[in-house]
Amino acid sequence: MRDIAGIFAIWPSTNDMAEAIEAKPDTVFRWKLRGRIPQEHWSAVITAALSKGATVTAEELLLASAPMKQRGRPSHRSKRRGRRSTEVCVS
């Protein structure tokens, strides 16, 4: 089972990987930084890896790709805005 670094290591550089899957080099570089390959590119990565003599499965990509981080502002549902603590101090 490969990790994400092992998948990127199939190609000598991110530029070579980008050329093989017909993506922009900067895009592939950012995938490597994030530790995640978007699902819509998995078939291209699998096919390109096969042409290099390596086998990459969708399961490996799923397990190796880091989950997406939250984008935008955090949800306020969990915060108790405007409410004071229910504890009472007795002196």
Write the layout of secondary structure elements.
Elements: H1 4-8, H2 14-21, H3 25-34, H4 42-51, H5 58-64
What does this structure look like?
With 91 residues, this protein is an all-alpha fold. The chain is built from five helices and no strands. The longest helix is centred in the first third of the chain and has 10 residues. The model has no long low-confidence stretch (mean pLDDT 85).
In angstroms, what separates the terminal alpha carbons? Answer: 62 Å
Low-confidence spans: none
- The succession of helices and strands, N to C, reads HHHHH
The second-level CATH architecture of the domain at 4-64 is Orthogonal Bundle
Q: Please give the number of β-strands.
A: 0
**CATH class value of the domain at 4-64:** Mainly Alpha
Helix content: 40-55%
Give the biggest beta sheet: none
What are the defining features of this structure?
91 residues; 434 Repressor (Amino-terminal Domain); 0% strand
Please summarize what this structure is.
The protein is built from five helices and no strands.
